[in-house]
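Re: that chain you flagged

S.,

Sorry for the slow reply, it's been a week of failed gels. I finally had a moment to sit down with the sequence you sent. For the record, here it is as I used it:
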Amino acid sequence: MSRAFVKEDIDLPERSTRRRSVSGLPPGAVNYLTAQGADRLRERLADLRRAGADQDEIQALEETLQSATVVQPLRTADVVVFGVAVTLQNPSGEWRTYRVVGVDEVALDAENVSWVSPLGKTLLGATLNQRLTLPADNEAWWRVVKLAYEPAGSNAFESR
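Prediction finished late last night. Pasting the structure tokens below so you have them in one place:
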């Protein structure tokens, strides 16, 4: 047997001593939040403090907000970017709407999808009227029919 295949020659990689963030992102990754998501998480934190909630939960939310980088949606010419709500339609007329957001705000609304998820990665950079195949739907295609941008300091959306 060749020495190339002897198990003892393999050095195990050392694990990084840096731990994952509260958000579950790998060490060094930027924790993006939309302005609307950051506001809602701050409101939740205030509610938890008023209610005298578990200190660990309060601390985790404080760490999340301290580590976050708040991003305003970049208004581009008909391109899906972080913070934008995307409405899709398939050939049979079914509609779906997703909003590309940070990992810590996915649970805030049913339409939210993380920018690091396979679906979020598929949506980012898509253009109006572009056909997409979604990760969980390999056979069918969907067309981007509407983009909605979040105005600063508002819960309403400006549509395109």
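What I noticed first: The chain has one domain: 31-159.

Talk soon,
D.
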